[in-house]
Prior knowledge:
heterodimer; A: 113 residues; mainly beta; B: 113 residues; 0% helix
Amino acid sequence: GENVEQHPSTLSVQEGDSAVIKCTYSDSASNYFPWYKQELGKGPQLIIDIRSNVGEKKDQRIAVTLNKTAKHFSLHITETQPEDSAVYFCAASIMDSSYKLIFGSGTRLLVRP
Amino acid sequence: EAQVTQNPRYLITVTGKKLTVTCSQNMNHEYMSWYRQDPGLGLRQIYYSMNVEVTDKGDVPEGYKVSRKEKRNFPLILESPSPNQTSLYFCASNRVGGGQPQHFGDGTRLSIL
């Protein structure tokens, strides 16, 4: 079955710097890759997603890139702010076949003021 | 407001005492799912439902039951809870078709003594 690996497990950056979180997946049939942000005491919230027919997607300070050949995708956060501090999860899924999300193990991001 | 509501948010109970965690969504979503979140393991799917009266096992279904008698509700039942079911549980829902994002509840923290 699908397996998603996520690195690093913790990441500390200075406010204003960029943060990059990387994930690799094993099932080449996966074609949908969402990223979730989880704040303390809350459920995961979708922040951006990408489908396999697109190599890159951007939404303000957040971008995601996908390399299908290498089976990895990354989350980039630019100009980080303290409110970006949270746990981030990547996930992989096969659209229109199963809606099951396979999650990475999470990255705890700390943005130092 | 579109939301997934879980109850209770916190529960401490003892081994063997049956419990039910309720989940309700107000978005008319067909797909609902239960996950458990454990440190270093991300979120793992317990059970899911594609629609009313249609349920299936996820990756870690042992010790759990679910039912889907109405579209909006998807309760998680622990018939005889054990300490290894101590975890943080999330319910999620989404529309089917085309990589629809999953919406998560705020979680239920269960402690089984």
